[in-house]
Write a structure and sequence with these properties.
Elements (H helix, E strand, L loop, with lengths): L2 H6 L1 H5 L5 H13 L1 H19 L10 H13 L3 H29 L8 E5 L5 E5 L23 E2 L59 E11 L2 H14 L3 E9 L4 E10 H12 L3 E11 L1 H20 L3 H26 E10 L1
Parallel strand pairs: 4-8
Antiparallel strand pairs: 1-2, 2-3, 4-7, 5-6, 6-8
Length: about 350
């Protein structure tokens, strides 16, 4: 089991959703990986803290009476109002259906084949020439046969008068000025190889990721304070001054203990100063920093991503191409997330009253 898979099981394990086999594999991985073991301990601490704050909340006076009154008022609504809403919904569905049918009818002409002209060759074979603009004279139609300029043509797939199978004895297409000696290839006259391009689709361009060491660092600080509201304001001020983003994980008050848990994400260059400032807010109960090396996972995922992009550009079936594109984008998103994590430092600040 990889670290990424193990961390994905943290939440299901806390909720008791893992099977015995999954729990055993998860336990073995925690025994082998100190980083995941430390992260799992933090998850357990946060879960215990949140569960400890569970307290029954009494309904305010008059709540039941007000709720019953509102229910009785809703039951007195006249039935024709519901019929009117149903009729409006049916009319909207009819308008959408009519619009879809009209759009489909107008769009059919775009799928009609382009006009094709048939020419009789000197040896009796028929040739088909694409002519998307029948009113415009095509270049090269008035040239003499021996002028050295060959009209781009393609052989007709159906040749009832010829004994040759389709695709055989086709004339090579030649470029102007070469005397008809060299056939034109898709890469002729181009400075380099072009990306694989499908009919009707653009090539998928892979995003470039630097091949560098990647480590994700996180710090957890648990502090007890006397004035939690004042400490919260100071912590948020420190985070703002260092350019950190703030996420509130928990903010609880059960009448006995007040507790708030923040997640700060800050640039690695500002992390040390922010950790030092937060440590001065009260009595530090615990503080630990863990570093997870993502280099191997990143390199392996990057290889999968590059191979997937190549499969996308080589796919001919539209459905297969769409499926491969979705998989490539998922890998690209994972790489982007890891890239951001390795550039930043995550700080979990746990504040609670003494």
């Amino acid at each position: 089991m990889q670290c990424r898979e193990a961390r994905g099981l943290f939440s299901p394990c806390l909720d008791g959703e893992l099977s015995p086999a999954e729990r055993e594999v998860f336990r073995q991985h925690l025994g082998e990986c100190p980083d995941c073991r430390a992260e799992w301990k933090r998850w357990q601490d946060i879960s215990r803290a949140l569960r400890g704050l569970e307290a029954p909340v009494a309904a305010p006076p008059g709540f039941a009476t007000a709720a019953n009154a509102r229910l009785a008022a809703r039951q007195r609504v006249r039935p024709w109002q519901g019929i009117r809403r149903w009729a409006a919904a049916a009319a909207a569905v009819a308008v959408l259906a009519a619009g879809s049918i009209g759009y489909a009818a107008r769009g059919l002409w775009q799928h009609l084949p382009a006009p094709v002209a048939r020419v009789q060759h000197s040896d009796g074979r028929q040739l088909a020439v694409d002519n998307p603009h029948p009113d415009v004279e095509q270049p090269g139609t008035n040239l003499p046969p021996d002028s050295g300029y060959s009209q781009p043509v393609k052989t007709d797939k159906q040749q009832p008068d010829s004994g040759n199978a389709p695709g055989k004895n086709q004339l090579p297409v030649t470029a102007p000025g070469n005397g008809g000696g060299q056939p034109v290839t898709p890469d002729s006259g181009k400075p380099g190889q072009q990306p694989t391009r499908l009919a009707g689709g653009e090539p998928y361009t892979a995003r470039a990721f630097l091949s560098a060491g990647r480590q994700a660092t996180s710090t957890m600080i648990k502090i007890t304070v006397d004035d939690i509201n004042g400490t919260k304001a100071k912590a948020l001020s420190l985070a703002t001054s260092s350019g950190a983003t703030v996420q509130v994980i928990a903010d609880q008050d059960n009448g006995q203990v007040k507790r708030v848990i923040y997640k700060f994400t800050v640039a690695e260059s500002q992390a040390a100063a922010l950790v030092a400032g937060l440590s001065q807010l009260g009595q530090v109960i615990s503080k630990n920093t863990t570093t997870q090396d993502l280099s191997q996972q990143f390199s392996a995922t990057l290889e999968q991503y590059q191979a997937k992009v190549a499969q996308v550009n080589a796919a001919a079936d539209p459905e297969e191409r769409a499926k491969l594109t979705k998989e490539a984008k998922a890998l690209e998103q994972q790489l982007s997330t890891w890239e951001e994590e390795t550039k930043q430092h995550t700080i979990i600040l746990w504040l609670e009253t003494k």
